[in-house]
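Model: You mentioned two targets. I'll fold them one after the other.
Researcher: Yes, keep them separate.
Model: Target one:
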Amino acid sequence: MSFPSLDGETPDKLIARLAAAGRAAQRVLARLDHDAKAAALRAASAALRADSASILAANAEDLVAGQLAGLTPAMLDRLMLDPVRLEAIAAAVDAIAALPDPVGQVIDTSVRPNGLALSRVRVPVGLIGIIYESRPNVTADAAALCFASGNAVLLRGGSEAVRSNRAIHTAMVRGLESAGVPAAAVQLLPTQDRAAVGAMLGAAGLIDMIVPRGGKSLVARVQADARVPVLAHLDGINHTYVHSAADPAKALAIAVNAKLRRTGICGAMETLLLDAQFPSSQAVVAALLDEGCELRGDSRAMALDPRVVAAADEDWHTEYLDSVLSVAVVDGLDAALQHIATHGSQHTEAIVSEDAEATERFLSEVDSAIVMANASTQFADGGEFGLGAEIGIATGRLHARGPVALEGLTTYKWLVRGSGQIRP
């Protein structure tokens, strides 16, 4: 399979051309009702199933190339598709088709004393650029979420999944076109040239929002270079605080699950805070170690079990995405809150406690996108929140925060209905 280059077209001209086509297609999407969009997405999922053989063949080529390039086993696992995973991708598109349409929802209404009737109504953002790595499922998830929320999308996947992404995109576009949707509603950047990514990031006025999905270096570059609004999170340095009044059985189960259920997802716990007055800290630490997790702790955590090694300063700021965990013993709720404020990334934090007052203080005072009580941080996921597939988890304070699904891909406009009023 050959991959097109820029073929003499400058990156800026390429992005301008694709953006113009995408914006024109988005105006068509804006006229589609929920039933029409749902039918188109179901046609896209049917095309994914029909093209399964070619998609899996393309993925096999990517896996061979990845092995030759020295990708880690974890990266190869993220890249790998099989019939079960491909069916899950198609099923996710169907699930998105069944979600309520946020476009046109009335957020609130009011009538002014002069008789003007005001309403705020959800509308699509416009043209969204998605820059992502590794996982081919993002091609389908991002395309379906953007389309269902009335947005056109320009996708740029990582080079390690280029064949898989192109095969998935080809199938989905064929399905959408069969339902009368313009192909430019879902575009995949036709080159892996990094200069084209720079052109996307600089395309203010052409692309309305950029969503990066990938590792820290990718997200950092996007946030540093973008002249387009960015919806992103940089790290998932997530904490679980086991309060002095925690139920020991709950604390042990939650800590093990939060760290080890899947270590490579952004909702995995990376730091465990144990209250100095919690009586079962030793059992929690031993359970994690017995499950094969490396623990890096402060002096009091090291005293709980000789297998705990000393943490370095950078450990408290590290997203391991592996079976490695930082552990600190803290003197009460205030110390836990201070540790999280100092070292956290405003992604997901949890408290384990049977003390209602302490729990409510934690929920109120922790400034993260997701704050939990008596639950594993592994629930930090749009599907678990009932949002369907997510496009990512946003940790900023503006527009959308937490799992971003259909509603997070909309903005709003004011509608003003009068009866001839003029302003004095």
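Model: Target two:
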Amino acid sequence: MDVKTGFFYFFSIVLLFAAFRVITARNPVYAVLYLVLAFFQASALWLLLKAEFLAIVLVLVYVGAVMVLFLFVVMMLDIKTDGVRAGFWNHFPLAALVGVFIALEMAAVLLGGFRGSEAPHASAVLGQATAELSNTRELGKILYTQYLYPLEIAAAILLVAMIAAIALTLRQRKDSKRVNPSEQVRVKAGDRMEVIKMAPTQVAAFAAAVAVTPDGNGENKA
């Protein structure tokens, strides 16, 4: 067994362990940290397959942005695990059935793909070696030529999901100060300032109170 194969088995074992701990950890923060570890191991496997672009994207997008956001949200929410796990065993049979069904579907797809694949011809291998193909360039060509419409559909679905998530979680609070921009645009000068007519001079409140109180002789100055 060479060094590359040894690294492959090492990263795979750690990836499986981290994925198992994601669904078995009682603390949500630990589950998120194990998921970060699983993403790092998957990125290392991509590097072994010479897919550097996918490995870097996995680390930057998922570990650097998405999982950090998940970690902050989980830590700020302070989720109580006791209430969440109250009905775990009641829903376990249905969850296990769905999990087995998904695993069988994935196995059928992967086994069918492996059986249909053939080893490349020697001429094709030599041609690719001499051309020095870039996996990032080839991935971009495939995405924006052969899979252009599925990519646009996926982008539209993600946009709709983002708008729907914002609309579902948006709540109007009574104690928050919110200004309607349309009202600001239509406002006039008379609405912002009101001129009140007042007398040129007025008696101060303290002086008026002293004037109406009786003095020491029992006489009223007013």
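Researcher: Noted. Anything on target two?
Model: DSSP finds eleven helices and no strands in the chain.
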